[in-house]
Amino acid sequence: MQLSIVIPYLNEVESIPELTQWIERVMHANNFSFEIILIDDGSTDGSWALVEKLASEKKNIRAIKFRRNYGKSAALNEGFKIAEGNVIITMDADLQDSPDEIPDLYKMIVEDGNDLVSGWKKKRHDPVSKTIPSRLFNRVTRMMSGIKIHDFNCGLKAYRRDVIKHIEISGEMHRYIPVIAKWAGFTKIKEKVVLHRERKYGKSKFGWERFINGFLDLLTINFVTRFGKKPMHLFGSLGLISFIIGFCISVYLGFAKFYWQEYKMTDRPVFYIALVAMIIGVQLFVAGFLAELIHRASPHRNEYQVEKRMN
User: Fold this and answer.
1) pLDDT surpasses 70 at 204
2) Strands ordered across the beta sheet of 157-160
3) pTM (2 decimals)?
């Protein structure tokens, strides 16, 4: 099968029929073999009944229903598990992503040899309250990840099959799939300017909290990918630096006390700074040591991404 189109949705009963028909027109016009995977993330507006009907009528539509709302990352993760296409396309169900972009995204994976292609909504039909924070969010992510794309949060993306079978997303990590893919060894990441359409039905399901949660998730990804298998390298280094700073200050204060006969060490504020620095240093070092013990006890400690094996 050439294509799997994975679409998570929440309360999009008006959009789904039009979207699936549009996708089918594009697929048939380009002679693609395809499947549409719809993941219901706890809808309450009758969307699932509609999707059930569509799935029973058409063999190329598959569906998953969550018992409650788990979030977009969980929906994508479940869709990725059952996707059978050589190229996987993800898109939102609100009709703001255009299925007409799919053939070009497919070519950029198959013909150009990219691992992942992310859409770039260069011209957005969103209020300023969303576009300005989004630009800041994307700039910070570019700086921290080193990936030169403009729109990490665009729902319209294309993946080589190997990518989605070797990554796992949870929480609200869906916006950082390019970062996760890069740290898994998939470095051929490009972007494509895509059409962003005005919302036709309903309203956005995301609020301001996504930017706060997104930044925290970025810190989590950077920590796990860089130090997940070597936590002592981070905690031990920070602890050692903190302890040395505190120790050097203490040595200086002791020298000043006994050789220069200055006033009491405890009368100087810097003494307490040194004391706190040494205590924090010891705590960080112990935290790193405990993290190493936990990691070494994990059954997944020696799991690595392997591209090929030869006998």
Assistant:
1) no
2) 61-65, 34-40, 3-9, 87-90, 157-160, 116-120, 189-193
3) 0.73
